[in-house]
Design goal:
four-stranded mixed beta sheet; Arc Repressor Mutant, subunit A; Serine Threonine Protein Phosphatase 5, Tetratricopeptide repeat; alpha+beta
Amino acid sequence: MSELVISLLGPLRVWLASEPVTGFCSDKARALLAYLAVEEGISHRREELAGLLWPGYPERSARQSLSQALFSLRSALRLSADDAPPLLLATRQELQLAPSPQVSIDASAFGALLQACSQHPHDDRGAGRCDECVARLQQVIELYGGEFLAGFTLADCSEFEEWLVVQRERYRRQAVEALRALVDGHSERPLLPLSLAYARRWAELEPLDEEAHRAVMRLLAMLGQRSAALAQFERCCQLLAQDLQLAPEPATCQLAAGIRSGEPPVGTAG
């Protein structure tokens, strides 16, 4: 088969042989593909998938709808029963998206890079100061094109929606941790602009996280941009007041006061 690319981080996008795939019969067919892609290499009972995507349907009707969605996937992806090895492994009881060198899934690559970082030995400096893992973490952030399945919803499928919330939080949290490590790992002066870019992305993903705002403020001050650092403080104050009806933490206020008085900031995060 031709190369298949499935992008789940951001809006769901699928390409086959570099051409966008748009021939899915329904959002539930797209949801089935996304679910199997995240669970790549794992078999799922047909009744489980039918219940996930067609809750409240009689079992026979739900399974028929699942079969129709599966047919739509095969058609849109131009899969054939003669494919060897088959991409979609289907029996009367189970379905699976089989791992294949012809298939590229951004979420799978994202997870593999993070796993490689976690398994790579580091001293007390951490992954953000390991050249190999910094390269991996940079790839992680490049892969994180936005919220998992951004804009996608199945309002009549509460269990699928719960799964969606869990996946979105998981990938967002992992992206934030990668950004934190990159901010820390680029704290030397020649790398401060890059560290600032990562800190700003962190603050975009976590707009109510004062640690992210403090990192941006501190880096701006270290780069001599004190007015911009104080503008970041004001933005932090506005977000906290609007969304949480809270004032900033003492550490954030102390950092802002130090920047106003011209004290040299220390470190990058915290």
